[in-house]
Amino acid sequence: MKPGGFADLHQHVLWGLDDGPGTAEQMHALLEQNAAEGICLVYATSHADPQRRPFDLTLYQERLEEARVYCEKKGLDLRILPGSEIRYRGSVPDRLAAGNLLPLGASRHVLIEFDPDVSLFEIQEAADSLYRAGYLPVLAHVERYRCLRHFPQKAMDLREEYGMLFQMNCDAITHLRNLMERRFVRRMLTAQAIDVIATDAHDAVRYPAQMREAYRTVAQLYGEDYAKHLTEFGWRLLRAEEGQQA
Fold it and tell me: What distance separates the 2 farthest-apart alpha carbons in the chain?
């Protein structure tokens, strides 16, 4: 693994914003769990659903700074960058352009999610709309969508045709739930059609930040190089941002 440690592109680490940590103490526990897992870069991707309620950017920034201060105070080797997990709606490209929703860090990559029963056409339409607006979609927890899970070849075609990046949750690799999911996960990883794995952690107990076990599983079954690729995407994204700003 690279010296910088794991990068987690999808985590609900900030407290009091969504169904993640409910208290500051729960956030602190999750931050320390990250450090113990070898995660050194976290994108704080709180839920954002513009159809239900406005994303509270002011409160988000306050909690982000609170998390950063705690890491510095405790000497945790953990960098936290802004982001959001956006439930896709037709207004999302305009809201991103207006600064009402957050991409991943300072990049043009956007973490999006859908209802589990979303159609393939709806995902294609979302990808096309985001591209035309200048954004690069990253599909959160790709294993959850029936239209892709039941037809892995269609998922791979979608990735190739639209350039959409696929994020898979760590627990989909370490705790396979049913035959259909097992087949999908194994086929996608065998084809190296997953671009990044992430914890999707919500707290240190119910939905913890368990990256190390997923890394070891991928390394054992699909190779060390691919495991590194899947857990370093956030670092590559950050280096690209810093290169653009230089």
Answer: 48
Residue at token pair 């049913």: 178
Confidence band of 147 (pLDDT split at 50, 70, 90): very high
Total structural domains in the chain? 1
Task: Kindly report the pTM of this predicted structure.
Answer: 0.95
Examine residue 99 and state whether it is found in any structural domain, yes or no. Answer: yes
Whether the Cβ atoms of residue 242 and residue 69 lie closer than 8 Å to each other: no
* Residue 138, strand partner residues: 111, 165
Answer yes or no: is 33 within a domain. Answer: yes
Burial of 186 per CB tally in 10 Å (0-12, 13-18, 19+): middle
3-state SS, residue 110: strand
Residue 117 in domain? yes
- Whole domain around residue 127: which residue ranges? 6-245
> What is the spatial distance between Cα 124 and Cα 161, in angstroms, rounded to a whole number?
9
Query: CATH no. for residue 150?
Result: 3.20.20.140
Is residue 1 one of the residues assigned to a domain?
no
In this prediction, residue 243 carries a pLDDT of: 67
Average pLDDT of the chain is: 95
State mean pLDDT over 76-81. 97
